[in-house]
Amino acid sequence: MISPEALLFALFGGILPALLWLIFWLREDRLHPEPRRFILYVFLTGMLAVPIVLPLEEITQRYVAGNLMFVIWAFIEEGMKLGAAYVVVLRRREVDEPIDAVMYMITAALGFAALENTLFLLDPLAHGNILVGIINGNLRFLGATLLHVLSSGTVGLFIALSFYRNARLRHRALFIGLILAVFLHALFNFFILYNADGKVLIVFAGVWVGIILLLLFFEKIKQIKRPQFIYLRKK
C-alpha cells in the first residue's frame, strides 16, 4: 500500500524538476512566447502518454530482447511524445514560426519525463528508501530528463529547419529527426543499462554536450525568418 506521503513526495520529486527545466526553456523563448494554455495542454498530454507507453514496452520485453528491444522502446517513447505534441498543437495554425515546433516538442518531453520520474521515485519511497529516492531523483534530473529533452528537441529542430519548405521535404525532415531521436534514446538506454564500469557520469556528460548543441541550434532557429517572395510583374 502506497502511503499518501510517499505519493506526494514522488509527485513533487518527479514533476518539480521537469517544471524547472520547462521554465528554463520558456525563458529561452521569452521574446516570442507560446500561448500558455497550449504549453500546459502539451505538458499534460506528454504525461498522459506514459500510461500508454508502459504496457507497450512491457509487451515488447516479452517478445524481444537485446539491442532491438532498446530500439523499439525508444521508438515507442519518441513516437508517443511526438504524437502528444502533434495532437494538441503541431497541426494547428498557432504554430506560426519554426521555433514553436522545438518548444512544443521539448514541452511534451518534459511532461513525459515528469510522470516517468514520478513512477521511478514511487517504488523506493513507498518502501521507505528515502536516500535511494533522492539519488534516483537527482540522477534522472541530470540524465534521463535531459535525454528526453534532447531527443524530442532533435525532432523539433528538424521540423523547424524544414518549416517553410514543401510538404515532401517537411515529411522527410520529420522522418530523419525521429530516426535520430530514436538512435540517441536507444544509445542512452544501452549505455545506462549495460554500464558495467559504472561510468554513468560519462554518459550524462554526453547528454549535456547534446543539450549545449541543442541550445546553440535553438538560438539559430529563432533567427529563421519567413522567406520573402518577390513576384515580377510582366510588362
TrEMBL record:
Keyword Transmembrane among record annotations: yes
Entries under Pfam families matching the protein: PrsW-protease
Alphabetic keyword roster: Membrane, Transmembrane, Transmembrane helix
Coiled-coil segments: none
GO MF terms, alphabetically ordered: peptidase activity
Transmembrane segments: 6-26, 38-56, 68-89, 101-121, 141-161, 173-194, 200-218
Stated name of the protein: Protease PrsW
Lineage: Bacteria, Candidatus Kaiseribacteriota
